[in-house]
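Homework help board

Subject: predicted structure for assignment chain

Our instructor gave us this sequence and asked us to write out the predicted structure in token form, then describe one feature. I got the tokens but I'm not sure how to describe them. Can anyone check?
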Amino acid sequence: LDAAVMSSARMLGSWGEHYACRWLQQHGLFLVEQNARTPYGELDLVMLEKEEMVFVEVKTRRNRSFAH
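My token output:
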């Protein structure tokens, strides 16, 4: 993929993570860390719901043909 396509994909992914984080916060979760790097890969969002840690993988699509 060329640089413009990769940049566009990163921007879409960043927007999706922001949107998901905001939605989760509006539903009572608290952000602990975003884009947390681990030896096993990256976690998009680490949230806290009451006393439970919630790990969120965000997949952002340009259309609704797959899911809402």
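Reply (TA_rk): Your tokens look well-formed. For the description, you could write something like this. The two ends are 26 Å apart (CA to CA). That's the kind of observation they're looking for.
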